[in-house]
Amino acid sequence: MGRRSTIALLGLALSAVLVVGCGADSGNGAAVTSLAPPRASTTVVPSVPGAPPRVTILATGGTIAGKANAEPGVGYKAGQASVQDLISAVPGLDKIATLQAESIANIGSQDMNEEIWLTLARRINQLFADNATDGVVITHGTDTIEETSFFLDNVVATDKPVVLVGAVRPANALSADGPANLRAAVSIAAAPAARGRGAMVVLNDTIHSAREVTKTHTSSMQTFASPNTGPAGYVSGDSIRFVTTPQSHTRPRFPVPDGSSLPRVDIVYSHAGMRPDQVDDAVRHGAKGIVLAGVGDGNTAKAVLDALAKANDDRVVVRSTRVGSGEVVRNAEVNDDELGFATSADLNPAKARVLLQLLLTVGITDPVRVQQEMNAR
Ligand code: ASP
C-alpha cells in the first residue's frame, strides 16, 4: 500500500495521505461484495468528466476509530484505528468514489480543540480551492461532532458536501456501526444532490444539518436528532433521500480565523440555587463572551442575571437554554433590550458559543448584530 507520510500541521498528528484507486467497472453507490484491498497511489486525482466522484476522508479519531479493552478498567479507547483500517472495514468503499485519505488527528472528540478545527478548515478549503476533491468526509467522535460540524459549516468555502461521521460502537465491537456509517458518509459526499447543504452529520442512516444536529442519548445508535426541524434526509442502501431544501446563505459565512485559537467564550450552566460564581470566574479568566445555558427560555437566578448584566459592559452575553429544543425568545421573561443581551435563537449553548467565537473574530460585538447572526439560517 503506497503511502506518503508527513507531520501534520501544527504538530498535531502524523499525517498519512493515500489515494485509493477506483475500479473501471465501478458505479456510484453500486452494491459491492469484493473484499480486495484498495489500490493506492500518491498522485492527486484530477477531475475528469464522467469519472467517478472523488472523496477525501479526513480522520480525527473518535469511537469510530476506537478499540475495546485498550486499557485495563476502561471499556474501550477512542482514536486507535488508522484511517486505512476504517476504509478497509468497508468492502467496496472504493467502488463508490475514488478515495483520498489523511489523518488529521486521532483523538477522542472530548479532546477536540480549536487548533484542530482550524487545521481541518484550512485543509478542506485548500482541497476545494485546488479542485482536488468533490466531497469531504470527516471521521469524528460523537461527543463534539455537533460543534465541529457547525464550526466547519460556517467557515468552509464550498457548496460541495462536507459530511461528518462517527460511530457509537468501537471499531472492533460486535455489530460495530462505523463501517455502515462510513459507507453512507462517502455516498453522500459523492452525491451531487448533497450540494448546497453545508456541513452534515450522518449516523444510523440519518442525515442531519450541522446547525440542527445534537447528541441526545449517551449510548443509543439513534442518538442524533435535529430537535427543531427533524433530519435533513435518510440513507437506505444506495438511496439518499433529502427531505429538507438546501440552505440559502452563501458560503463561507466567516473567513477561517488566523492563528491557532479563537476568542475565549465560556458557557455558564444554570441550575436551581445558582450563585453568580461561574460568571465571575469567566470574567476573571478573560472570557470575551459568555453564553448562558439557562433554564427554560434561557433564564437564570436574579443574582446571576445581575452578574451577567455587569459582565455585559465589556463583553458579549448570549442567552441560550439547557432545555434541548425550542427557541429562546427575546424579552419574554428577561428584558434583553434593557440589559443588552442577545439570545441564541434555536442554537444550543455549545453552538451559540462557536458562533459567538466567530463573531468576535470579525469584531461583531453589538448585541443587535449578534442577534441578527444568531437568527441567520
Ligand atoms: N468519546 C467518544 C468521542 O467523542 C465518543 C464517540 O465517539 O462516540 O470521541
Number of DSSP E strands = 19
Which segments are poorly predicted (pLDDT under 50) over 5 or more consecutive residues? 1-43
Total domain units: 2
Strand content: 15-25%
Mean pLDDT, to the nearest integer, reads 88
What does this structure look like?
With 377 residues, the protein is an alpha/beta fold. It has two domains: 181 residues, L-asparaginase, N-terminal domain (Rossmann fold, 3-Layer(aba) Sandwich), CATH 3.40.50.1170; 112 residues, Rossmann fold (3-Layer(aba) Sandwich). It contains ten helices and 19 strands. Helix 4 packs parallel to helix 9 and helix 6 packs parallel to helix 7. The protein is globular and about 60 Å long. The N terminus is likely disordered. The site of aspartic acid (ASP) has 11 residues, from loops. It comes from Nocardia ninae NBRC 108245. GO terms for molecular function: asparaginase activity. Keywords: Hydrolase, Signal. Belongs to the asparaginase 1 family.
Task: Please give a handful of descriptors for the protein shown.
377 residues, alpha/beta, Rossmann fold, 2 domains, eleven-stranded mixed sheet, binds aspartic acid
Provide a brief overview of the structure.
This protein has 377 residues and is α/β, with parallel strands linked by helices. It is 25% helix and 24% strand. It folds into two domains: 54-68 and 77-242, Rossmann fold; 265-376, Rossmann fold, CATH 3.40.50.
Write the layout of secondary structure elements.
Layout: E1 4-7, E2 14-20, E3 40-41, E4 54-61, E5 67-71, E6 74-77, H1 83-88, H2 93-96, E7 98-107, H3 114-129, E8 135-139, H4 145-155, E9 162-165, H5 178-189, E10 199-203, E11 206-209, E12 214-215, E13 224-225, E14 233-236, E15 239-242, E16 265-269, H6 277-284, E17 289-294, H7 302-311, E18 316-321, H8 336-339, E19 342-343, H9 349-361, H10 367-375
Parallel strand pairs: 4-7, 4-8, 8-9, 9-10, 16-17, 17-18, 18-19
Antiparallel strand pairs: 1-2, 2-3, 2-7, 5-6, 10-11, 11-14, 12-13, 14-15
Helix pairs in contact: 4-9, 6-7
The structure holds aspartic acid.
